[in-house]
Amino acid sequence: MYVEMADSKGKSRLHQQIDENLKRVYEEALSEDIPDRFKDLIAQLRAKETGK
């Protein structure tokens, strides 16, 4: 029983660490600028929409 509790605490810590890492990576991705090529593509799509 003690081993199971220790194992579940280890998994809990592991899950917490995974959650923290995923949140950190997500926050970093959100703070990145949109690449110029994507901005150009969006501008082209908008120009086509307004040209209809």
From TrEMBL:
Pfam families per the UniProt record, alphabetical: NepR
Domain Anti-sigma factor NepR: residue ranges: 15-49
UniProt name for this protein: Anti-sigma factor NepR domain-containing protein
Organism, scientific name: Rubellimicrobium mesophilum DSM 19309
Taxonomic placement: Bacteria, Pseudomonadati, Pseudomonadota, Alphaproteobacteria, Rhodobacterales
